[in-house]
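Table 4 source record.
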Amino acid sequence: MSDVRSDARLNPLPALIFSSRWLQLPLYLGLIVAQGVYVFLFGKELWHLIHETPKLSEQDIMLIVLGLIDVVMISNLLMMVIVGGYETFVSRLRLEGHPDQPEWLSHVNASVLKVKLAMAIIGISSIHLLKSFIEVGMVGGLPLCSSAEGIAASQAMAAAAKNLKACTSVTAAGVMWQTIIHGLFIVSAIGIAYTDKLMTGTTSRREHAHAH
């Protein structure tokens, strides 16, 4: 039987330090507002897709759909940070037995949250990299949008009222660096997961030794 009383009162200084966790509450509320902004962005992009479908090429539609998936994955990342972070660092949500309780929330802790966030970031990076791969195949030979040629081409295309791509912001070197950074994300996620596995194994062996 535990000798820790649930109604035990803390000394003033520990109580103040422990209560400071509530300073994170405005941060999580701010992320909820950001979630609403992404919902608005998703609706805006979806309306653009529906309204402009007859004028868009297959590659353009694919890029817009990938953009929608990107918004959804970032929204999922926000939910993991909001729900998991609040549960881990602020206060219990007390969702036990709720039919809509996320499966991963039942065993969430700081280590599990880090691994899940790393995997979510890899997924988002994959979508951005795929968008770059598709656009590179579409824009071969087009000038950079930031160059004088790209600005002139954009103005000429706008004047002609043609729904064609006049310039590009994607370069071969940029895609190469995106690929390298994506690979570093993967290596980092593997390192985080491996470190978490080592720490979990060490804790389990320590508890097993104490039990005997």
